[in-house]
């Protein structure tokens, strides 16, 4: 990556502790527009904690975050969202009893035009449904068939697809995905990987957390290796093989 | 050939099992997507049964009484429903409503405050009391059960200290405060203005729950508050608004209460907490949050009251009403548990 470019999102010296457990121990990370940054690491290495600190779900104890070079302080997920950062959390963060369309628009519902919307605050349910349907279709996610189905009646993989669709449809700067293909079949995983590549082509920055090394080596531009709460180095798929990457990840080799 | 014959019974048994389960599952799905359906069926059966027992039950006089008697619990249960939808519970319902009614009545009758101002202050006190519950739940982070158990005692004590345990008799009340008890005819029915106010409250809150973003957020927060927060909903703001709106509803219900009782008494509606929770639960709203609605609650309140009216018309002792309501509560929660098992 060129060093003259300003990262669309960057963090320096992030620290996050949970009582005596250290989740993040001084982590630096840069994401540029038009690249996929993969984050790999063993269970408990701090990947999800890093993601949450970058997206306002957790407030770091120390460290700074900048968006396009300007320092930001995300106090809650809504702040990161307002800055154009959309996230698929590992826990998916969907409301089970609400339908797919309601989940896509959760927290950014659209109201009817005119007095019905302004005075009576009426939701534009049909409008949101048809736009949600179009978004899901355009994203090439064909596991979701019925947009009016409650999310709790979907399979784990379909729920994951809903969360991915929501992030991809609304992300304008950065899309962050924490293990988005964990519950997906081969075909659905490939759809999500294709989607990630499309987001990159559209100039977005993508952060992808994954345990699936072939996926990572297939789509990533750079790979951030997280180990025991620290960054163990940043490599690229061309500079290191998968085996070398895994060796760094497990501490068997240095970056 | 042998393989085929050994395979066949298994396949047939599975098919039979599938066919046997299908209607039950369909019923489960239906109840799942329409939570007000089971209380509607129960209310219908109740009314049919009581009419068969005594045809005076279906007469306009008895039905008018039923509606008037249901109004107060039905109003309080709107606020209770909102709070239970967020997976909370409100034990301070009755205390807030009584407090609002006493404040308005005492200000008007003893301090000489003009009736409209006394009324507004009384209703605003309900809003403030609900807001206090909301602050304790969201800012201090206490469980709603504990918060409202505490404020139940605090509000009750404050009301008793303020009133000295004395009622305000109807003769001392300005017309505006007891206006809600005024009846007017609709055909053969006689309704009160209080009933109209409660009906309007149902329309407004029903609209807010089903047609606005706020309503959707109430359900999302009750369903899974962590997920709602990560999805960008200001969970604490939604929770606070729910408790404050509930307080406002109790304040308005207090006005209806004064009209119904024809006086303001610090000892009114002693059973409001349990009765409102009963109406919500029988109405199909889940105590775990995120599921249900106020249409079911209205039906639940009507069911309880129709037992009271129907059994007394049938000359049955009031203890049997308690028995029936208790059985209904347990049945309603069992149905809820069963419905919640609908997962793919
Ligand atoms: N809310 C929390 N409370 C206490 N400890 C936590 C919390 N969240 C994370 N941790 C701890 O922080 C460390 C890093 O956790 P994190 O979830 O970031 O790991 P991860 O790399 O995402 O793992 P996985 O691959 O299993 O998802 C772990 O030791 C974990 O126990
Ligand atoms: Mg994780």
From TrEMBL, chain A:
The keyword ATP-binding applies. Pfam families: ABC_tran (PF00005). It comes from the Bacteria. The keyword Nucleotide-binding applies. Gene3D superfamilies: P-loop containing nucleotide triphosphate hydrolases. PANTHER family: CARBOHYDRATE TRANSPORT ATP-BINDING PROTEIN MG119-RELATED, SUGAR ABC TRANSPORTER ATP-BINDING PROTEIN. This is Sugar ABC transporter ATP-binding protein. It comes from Jiangella ureilytica.
Automatic annotation (TrEMBL), chain B:
It is a multi-pass membrane protein. PANTHER family: ABC TRANSPORTER PERMEASE PROTEIN YPHD-RELATED-RELATED, RIBOSE IMPORT PERMEASE PROTEIN RBSC. InterPro entries: ABC_transp_permease (IPR001851). This is ABC transporter permease. Keywords: Cell membrane, Membrane, Transmembrane, Transmembrane helix. The chain crosses the membrane at residues 36-53, 59-79, 91-109, 115-138, 145-165, 191-209, 238-258, 295-314, 320-339. One of its GO terms (cellular component) is plasma membrane. GO terms for molecular function: transmembrane transporter activity.
């Amino acid at each position: 990556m060129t060093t003259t470019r300003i990262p669309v999102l960057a963090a320096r010296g992030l620290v996050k502790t949970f009582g005596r457990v250290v989740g993040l121990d001084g982590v630096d990370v840069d994401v540029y527009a038009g690249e996929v940054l993969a984050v790999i690491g063993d269970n408990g290495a701090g990947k999800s904690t890093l993601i949450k600190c970058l997206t306002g779900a957790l407030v770091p104890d120390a460290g700074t975050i900048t968006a396009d070079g300007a320092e930001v302080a995300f106090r809650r997920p809504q702040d990161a969202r307002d800055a154009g950062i959309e996230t698929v959390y590992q826990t998916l963060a969907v409301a089970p009893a609400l339908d797919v369309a309601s989940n896509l628009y959760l927290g950014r519902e659209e109201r009817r035009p005119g007095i019905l919307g302004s005075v009576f605050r009426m939701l534009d349910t049909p409008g949101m449904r048809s736009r949600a349907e179009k978004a899901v279709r355009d994203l090439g996610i064909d596991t979701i068939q019925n947009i009016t189905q409650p999310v709790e009646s979907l399979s784990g993989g379909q729920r994951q697809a809903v969360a991915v669709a929501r992030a991809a449809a609304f992300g304008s700067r950065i899309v962050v995905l924490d293990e988005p293909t964990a519950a997906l079949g081969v075909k659905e995983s490939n759809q999500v990987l294709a989607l990630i590549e499309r987001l990159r082509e559209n100039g977005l920055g993508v952060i992808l957390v994954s345990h699936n090394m072939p996926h990572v080596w297939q789509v990533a531009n750079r790979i951030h290796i997280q180990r025991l709460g620290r960054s163990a180095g940043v490599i690229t798929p061309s500079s290191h093989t998968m085996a070398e990457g895994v060796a760094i990840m497990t501490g068997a080799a240095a970056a | 050939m042998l393989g085929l014959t050994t395979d066949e019974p298994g396949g047939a048994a599975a098919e039979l099992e599938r066919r046997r389960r299908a209607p039950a599952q369909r019923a489960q799905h239906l109840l799942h997507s329409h939570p007000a359906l089971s209380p509607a069926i129960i209310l219908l059966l109740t009314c049919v049964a009581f009419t068969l027992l005594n045809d005076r039950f279906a007469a306009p006089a008895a039905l008018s009484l039923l509606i008037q008697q249901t109004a107060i619990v039905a109003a309080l249960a709107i606020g209770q429903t909102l709070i239970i939808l967020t997976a909370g519970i409100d034990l301070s319902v009755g205390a807030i409503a009584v407090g609002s009614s006493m404040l308005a009545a005492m200000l008007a009758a003893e301090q000489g405050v003009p009736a409209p101002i006394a009324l507004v202050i009384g209703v605003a006190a309900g809003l403030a009391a609900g807001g206090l519950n909301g602050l304790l739940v969201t800012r201090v982070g206490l469980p709603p059960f504990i918060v409202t158990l505490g404020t139940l005692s605090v509000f009750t004590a404050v009301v008793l200290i303020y009133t000295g345990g004395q009622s305000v008799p109807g003769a001392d009340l300005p017309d505006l405060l007891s206006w809600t008890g005024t009846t007017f005819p609709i055909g053969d029915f006689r309704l009160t203005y209080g009933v109209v106010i409660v009906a309007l409250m149902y329309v407004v809150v029903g609209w807010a729950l089903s047609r606005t973003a706020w309503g959707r957020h109430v359900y999302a927060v009750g369903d899974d508050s962590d997920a709602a927060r990560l999805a960008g909903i200001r969970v604490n703001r939604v929770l606070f608004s729910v408790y404050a709106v509930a307080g406002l509803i109790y304040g308005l219900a207090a006005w209806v209460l004064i009209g119904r009782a024809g006086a303001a008494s610090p000892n009114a509606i002693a059973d409001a907490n349990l009765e409102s929770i009963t109406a919500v639960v029988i109405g199909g709203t889940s105590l775990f949050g995120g599921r249900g609605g106020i249409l079911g609650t209205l039906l639940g309140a009507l069911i309880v009251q129709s037992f009271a009216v129907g059994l007394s018309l049938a000359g049955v002792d009031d203890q049997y009403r308690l028995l029936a309501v208790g059985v209904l509560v347990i049945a309603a929660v069992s149905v809820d548990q069963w419905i919640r098992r609908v997962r793919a």
